[in-house]
Design goal:
This protein is mostly beta strands. It is 4% helix and 54% strand. The strands form nine sheets. Strands 21, 22, 23, 24 and 25 form a five-stranded antiparallel sheet that branches. A four-stranded antiparallel sheet has the order 1-2-3-4, with no helix packed on it. The protein has a four-stranded antiparallel sheet with strand order 5-6-7-8, with no helix packed on it.
Length: 428
């Protein structure tokens, strides 16, 4: 009886997620997006104009994409060779990206809100800049590794024709997990699971044993801690972490959690459970006023978090989630009518129907490059191979019986010459 109830509950969740969420999104293609091991970073200069930078760790090339319609359409407009971009920041008119170039830190400053007009600076005293918080029109707090392989927290200052670096604190061989700074000398950082508040006079510990944290203002923030049995506990503060109030418990299995506050009352959490074959990503929106949780649909990612994604909010209502596979989620109303939708890969030859499906899944293949030695593979959200079906020579219509699959979300994969394509489907 308990098993039957569980199956009914899973079915209801799947059907609810599909009809209330998936159907409300249109597929958004990122033109010429390179499907490989990239770290995408996203930012917006205005509600309409935004940028994505994706870096190839193998070829050390970074690709720039632009949208001028709030993320509905994207196109590539620039490529930079011999560099790996770690992130991008757009605040107060101080727009920059950062990373490494041949074991030397790299900072790219974009002038006059124009990403076509850029200045590239090599930083000889640093190997890499890993994270940057722009705090005013001329200053940004950063952390990275210096030439002696020592982790540092520092201040980057934009000058007329150069940039200046000032060390704020050194950490030896202990890497910083995350920074949240609101001025040149006030903010938060975490290291080895401990949260600290720093100002010009002192450093004080505010919490311990945290998985992640985020502050929307200098006073208001949250920490996430392990809750036991595949769950996390969320605690909130409105007094710089002097006291913490228990908010809620989210029942999610995870290997990695990322939290982003898009307002003092709203928190988004991405939780990953991943293996060598792929990852599940669950997005939750938590109302911090009444401590309620809204779960969005899980999505299957062939990614390796945290390098495979970025979550970004331009405003309270306008947010974006992008993965290195070109999956993109957009909310324009603080998640009120939104969810995750898998973007179609450019020229993806696969078409599945019906979707969701109960018994027989039809697969149309619009390609002449798929050979008879190839197979269609169905994987679950843990990356485990569930079913394999061989293809006949130039076969373009296949039927697969999925009636024996458990309820849930799966993805189908097929190899074509030099590319690997996939599609997500729901079994109900």
């Amino acid at each position: 009886m308990k098993c039957l109830i569980s199956k009914i509950w899973i079915t209801l969740i799947v059907i609810f997620n599909y009809f209330s969420c998936y159907s409300q999104w249109n597929n958004i293609d990122i033109e010429n997006f390179y499907w490989s091991s990239y770290k995408p970073s996203i930012c917006f200069l205005s509600a309409d104009t935004g940028y994505i930078i994706a870096s190839n760790y193998d070829t050390k090339q970074s690709y720039f994409y632009i949208t001028k319609d709030s993320g509905l359409n994207w196109s590539q407009f620039d490529t930079i060779n011999n560099c790996i971009i770690k992130g991008i920041e757009c605040k107060y008119g101080f727009n920059l990206s950062y990373g490494t170039n041949n074991d030397e830190a790299l900072v790219i400053i974009f002038e006059n809100n124009n990403f076509y007009n850029k200045r590239i600076f090599q930083i000889p005293n640093y190997k890499v800049i890993s994270e940057v918080n722009v705090v005013d029109p001329n200053n940004a707090v950063f952390y990275g590794m210096n030439a002696d392989s020592i982790y540092e927290l520092g201040l980057l200052t934009k000058e007329f024709d150069s940039i200046k670096f000032t060390t704020l604190k050194t950490f030896g061989n202990y890497p910083i997990d995350k920074i949240n700074f609101f001025s040149a000398n006030q903010g938060y950082y975490s290291i080895q699971g401990d949260l600290y508040y720093m100002n010009s006079n002192s450093i004080s510990q505010k919490s311990s044993n945290i998985i992640d944290f985020d502050f929307h203002s200098l006073d208001s923030g949250i920490v996430i801690k392990t809750g036991g049995q595949g769950s996390v506990n969320i605690y909130k503060t409105n007094n710089k972490g002097d006291t913490w109030e228990y908010s809620t418990n989210a029942w999610i299995s995870f290997n990695y959690v990322k939290a982003v506050m898009n307002s003092n009352s709203s928190l988004y959490i991405i939780a990953y459970w991943y293996s060598s074959g792929g990852a599940d990503a669950y997005i939750s929106n938590i109302n911090l006023l009444n401590n309620t949780i809204v779960y969005f649909s899980p999505i299957s990612l062939m990614a390796n978090p945290p390098d495979g994604m970025d979550l970004y909010f331009f405003s309270k209502d306008q947010g974006y989630f992008v993965t290195h596979l070109g999956q993109l989620a957009i909310t324009l109303n603080n998640g009120g009518l939104t969810s995750i939708n898998e973007l179609e890969q450019v020229d993806n030859p696969l078409y599945l129907y019906p979707n969701p499906c109960k018994d027989v899944l039809n697969i149309e293949i619009n390609s002449t490059k798929i050979y008879d030695e190839k197979s269609i593979v169905i994987l679950n959200t843990q990356g485990q191979i569930i079913k394999v079906q061989d293809l006949n020579f130039y076969q373009n219509h296949i039927k697969i019986d999925i009636s024996d699959l458990d309820y849930g979300i799966y993805f189908l994969s097929i190899q074509e010459e030099n590319s690997k394509y996939y599609k997500t489907f729901i079994k109900f």
